[in-house]
Amino acid sequence: MCDVPSLARHLHEKCPGVSRSFLYGLVVRASESLGDWIIICLRLSQQARFFAPSPSNSGPSSAINYHSFSLSASQRMSSPSDAIGTRKIGAPNTLEHRVYLEKNGNVISAFHDLPLFANEQHTVFNMIVEVPRWTNAKMEISKSEPFNPILQDVKKNKLRFVRNCFPHHGYIWNYGAFPQTWENPTHTHPETKAKGDNDPLDVCEIGEAVGYVGQVKQVKILGVMALLDEGETDWKVIVVDVNDPLAPKLNDIEDVERHLPGLIRATNEWFRIYKIPDGKPENQFAFSGEAKHKNYAIDVVMECHEAWKGLIKDGYSGISLANVSVEGSSHRVSHADVPPDSRKDPAPIDPSISKWFFISGHSV
C-alpha cells in the first residue's frame, strides 16, 4: 500500500515550489490508480515550471514561495465561503439553539458540504468558527444531527461553559474546526500512540479580529499541537486568517513566537488546565507540548481529510452523513429540511460563568 504522507513529503522536498497539499492530492489519486502516475508527472512538470524562480537577478522573483506564502490584497480571492451565511434557530444559551450554515440561502452541512480548501493550490483552507475569542459557551458542530448544525455542548442536561482560568477569559483564540476532516477513533497515530477523538479537526485562529459563531474564515496553517485529551489524540491546528494584518509575517510556527510572544506558551497552558476547575486532571500533550511546524500540520490535516473520505464512504456509528453536495455519497439529498430562521436574543447565563479560577502552580 502506498505510504501517502511519506511520498508526499518526498515529492515536496524534490519540488519545493509546489503546494504540499496539491502533492498530497496527487499521491492519493495515484495510490488508487497506477495509470495516474503519468498525469502526476505531467502536472508536476507544469507546476514546477510555473512556480520556478526567475533566472533573472535584475529584481525580485515573481514566483510564489510556498514556504513563506502570504496573500496580497489582490490575491484575497473569492471562494465558496463568500456566499456562506447562517440560519439561527432559537436563543443562544438555550438547549434549543442551533446555527446552521447556508449557501445562497440553502442549508448545507458544516461537516460535509463546506470544502476544506478555499484555494488548494495556494494552501488556503476554510475554517468554521464555533467559539469566538473571549467567549465561554462551548459551541461545537453536532456530529449526530442532520446537516451538522453548531450547538452548545451539553453534559448531564446542562449547557457547558469553559471556566476562566486566570489570567485567561474564555477561549483565547477564535476556536473552530476544519470541514471535511475527521479524527478517526479506530486509528492509533504512530507518534502520539493514541486514537483519534472522533471529531472534526480543531482549529485555533490567532488573528486580531473576533469572529462569530458560524463564520467561515479563510486561513493558512502555521503549526499544530497534539493534545492527549482523556487518552485520545486531539490535534489543535494553529492558523491565521489570510486577511489579518499580521498574516504576511506569519508563515510558520516560529513566526508566531517572534511576532506574538507568549501566545504558544499560553495556548499550551490553556489546554492543559482548562478542565481543572470542573474537577478533572490536567491534560497532557504529545511531543512534550512542542508545537510542530507548518508542514507537519498540513500532513495532519490531509490525513484527517482522507479519514473523512473514508467516513463518507463507510459511515460510523452516531455520525450523520446527510449532505447536499458530496459526489458519490449515498446520503446526498436535494435539499435540507430545516426550519426557517427563528433567531432570538441570548438567554441570560449564570453570573458564576464570569468567575476567575486560580490554578496553583501554573502561570503564563
Secondary structure: helix percent: 10-25%
Shape call: globular
Adjacency order of strands in the biggest sheet: 5-11-12-14-13
CATH C-level class of the largest domain: Alpha Beta
Keywords:
6 helices, 364 residues, Inorganic Pyrophosphatase, magnesium, inorganic diphosphate phosphatase activity, alpha+beta, 21% helix, five-stranded mixed barrel, Inorganic pyrophosphatase, single chain, cytoplasm, 21% strand, Pyrophosphatase
What does this structure look like?
The chain has a 5-stranded mixed barrel. The protein has 6 helices and 17 strands. It starts with a helix and ends in a 7-residue tail after the last strand. α1 (4-14) crosses α2. Residues 32-36 and 45-80 have low confidence and may be disordered. It has 364 residues and is of the alpha+beta class. Helix content is 21%, strand content 21%. The chain has helices spanning 4-14, 20-32, 37-51, 253-259, 263-273, 294-314; strands spanning 84-90, 98-103, 106-108, 117-119, 124-131, 139-141, 150-152, 154-155, 158-159, 164-165, 174-177, 202-205, 216-229, 232-241, 284-285, 342-343, 356-357. The radius of gyration is 21 Å and the shape is globular. It has 2 domains: 4-53, no CATH class; 81-357, Inorganic pyrophosphatase (Inorganic Pyrophosphatase). Its EC number is 3.6.1.1. It is found in: Cytoplasm. It comes from Austropuccinia psidii MF-1. Its cofactor is Mg(2+). Belongs to the PPase family.
